[in-house]
Design brief:
394 residues; globular; alpha/beta; binds (2S)-2-hydroxybutanedioic acid
Length: 394
C-alpha cells in the first residue's frame, strides 16, 4: 500500500516557512506565513491568554472528555462575538473544531452529506488550502473574480457578474474580513449587494472568518457576516481563534450552522456532532476553554481587546509607513492600496520573477503570488522592502 503512494503537492505557504528557516542570511525578512509578529519579530502569548491559562491550571480538575461539540459555552461565547445579535441563538448550531481549517473541512463534509450536487464558489484568489480541501473532498467548485491586480482593489463588478451564475443551493465562500491573500475587502454597501444576490439565488453563504479584530475592529470586521446572518435563512461560518487570540498551535476553531428555525438547528447540531465523531471524535479543548474564559470574564476580555487593538493599530501603522515610503520612492500613488487594505495581508502585484528576485537579492520572503504578511515588517524593515520592490521593477 505505502509503495503506491505518490508525492503530494507541497503547500506553498508551508514550503516558504521551510525555505525561510533554511536561509542562513541574518538579515532575511519573513513576510510569508500568516502569523502575527511584534516589532522584534516575536509571536508572544497574549497576557490575557497567559492569565486565563494560570486560572485554568489552578481551577481545572479533570482532563476527561468534553462533548462531541466541545463545551457549549464556547460555541455561545464565540458565536456571540462573531454574530452579535444578528440572529436568534436558537437558530445557531455550533461545534468546536481543530482550528479554522477544521471548521472549513467540517463545513465541506456537511455540504457533501446534505447537498452532494451543490457547487462551491470561491474567490479568485483565495487561501490555497480552501482549494486543496475542496479538491480533496471532490466538491465541484467554480472561481468568482475578486481582485483587480492593476488597482489592488476588489473587482466588484466582476464578482457580481460571476456570481450571477450561482444556482439555488450552491455555496458561496466569502472571507468575513481581511481577505487572504489580497487584503482587499468588501465595503458595507457591497456586503448588502452580496446579501441581495445570495438571497435572490437561494444560495448558501459560507463565511470563513479567521482575522476578526485585525482589520477595522471586532464589530466592524463582523459587519458583513452579521448582515448575511440577519437576512439569510441558512448559512455556514468557519471561525478561527488562531490569530486574534494568538493561540495558533492550540487549534481552536468553530463551525456555526445557521438554520431556518430552532428545530432545524437542533438537527444540524446533531449532524455536526456526528461529523466530529467520524473525523476526530472530541475536538481539542484547551484553546477553546481559554477563549471562553476570556470572552466571559469582564477583566480578561477588556485586557484581550486592548492587546488585540494594539496589534491591529500596529499593522495599520506599518501599512501607512510602507505606502508612504513607496509613494516617495516610486514618485507615484500606485501603492496607496497598501494603506487601504486591511488585516495581515496585502497582495503587492509583483510577478513570480520579481518575488523570486526579492528573495534572492534581499532575503525577503513572500508568497509566490506576492502576498506579504504586514505583521512580518517593522519600522526598520519597511524601507528595505520598499527599496527592494522598486529595485525589482515594481
Ligand atoms: C496563512 O494563510 O498564512 C495562514 O492562514 C496559515 C496557514 O495555515 O496557511
Amino acid at each position: 500500500m505505502l509503495n503506491d503512494l505518490k508525492e503530494q503537492p507541497a503547500d506553498k505557504i508551508l514550503m516558504l516557512m521551510q525555505a525561510f528557516r533554511e536561509d542562513p542570511r541574518e538579515d532575511k525578512i519573513d513576510l510569508g506565513v500568516g502569523v502575527y509578529r511584534d516589532a522584534d519579530g516575536n509571536t508572544p502569548i497574549m497576557a490575557a491568554v497567559k492569565e486565563a491559562e494560570k486560572r485554568l491550571w489552578s481551577a481545572e480538575t479533570t482532563k476527561s472528555y468534553t462533548g462531541l461539540a466541545g463545551d457549549p459555552e464556547y460555541g455561545r461565547a464565540l458565536g456571540d462575538l462573531i454574530l452579535g445579535d444578528a440572529v436568534a441563538r436558537d437558530r445557531r448550531a455550533a461545534v468546536a473544531t481543530p482550528g479554522g481549517t477544521g471548521a472549513v473541512r467540517q463545513a465541506l463534509e456537511l455540504m457533501r452529506m446534505a447537498a452532494p450536487g451543490a457547487r462551491i464558489w470561491v474567490s479568485d484568489p483565495t487561501w490555497p488550502n480552501h482549494l486543496s480541501i475542496i479538491k480533496h473532498l471532490e466538491r465541484p467548485s467554480s472561481p468568482y473574480r475578486y481582485f483587480d491586480d492593476a488597482t489592488g482593489q476588489v473587482d466588484f463588478d466582476g464578482m457580481c457578474a460571476d456570481l450571477d451564475a450561482v444556482a439555488e443551493g450552491d455555496l458561496v465562500l466569502l472571507h468575513g474580513c481581511c481577505h487572504n491573500p489580497t487584503g482587499a475587502n468588501l465595503t458595507s454597501e457591497q456586503w448588502d449587494k452580496v446579501a441581495d444576490l445570495i438571497e435572490a439565488k437561494g444560495a448558501i453563504a459560507f463565511v470563513d472568518i479567521a482575522y476578526q479584530g485585525f482589520g477595522d475592529g471586532l464589530d466592524a470586521d463582523a459587519e458583513g457576516v452579521r448582515k448575511l446572518a440577519a437576512r439569510l435563512p441558512e448559512m455556514l461560518i468557519a471561525a478561527s481563534c488562531s490569530k486574534n487570540f494568538g493561540i495558533y498551535r492550540e487549534r481552536a476553531g468553530l463551525l456555526i450552522a445557521i438554520a431556518p428555525d430552532a428545530a432545524a438547528a437542533k438537527t444540524a447540531q446533531g449532524t455536526l456532532a456526528h461529523l466530529n465523531r467520524q473525523n476526530f471524535s472530541f475536538p481539542p479543548d484547551h484553546g477553546a476553554r481559554l477563549v471562553t474564559m476570556i470572552l466571559t470574564d469582564g477583566t480578561l476580555r477588556a485586557q484581550w481587546q486592548e492587546e488585540l487593538e494594539e496589534m491591529r493599530l500596529g499593522m495599520l501603522g506599518l501599512r501607512r509607513q510602507l505606502a508612504d515610503e513607496l509613494r516617495q520612492r516610486s514618485n507615484s500613488d500606485r501603492f496607496d492600496f497598501i494603506a487601504e487594505h486591511r488585516g495581515m495581508f496585502s497582495r503587492l502585484g509583483a510577478t513570480p520573477e520579481q518575488v523570486e528576485a526579492m528573495r534572492r537579492d534581499n532575503g525577503i520572503y513572500m508568497v509566490g503570488d506576492s502576498r506579504i504578511n504586514v505583521a512580518g515588517l517593522n519600522a526598520r524593515t519597511v524601507p528595505i522592502l520598499a527599496a527592494a520592490m522598486i529595485d525589482a521593477g515594481l
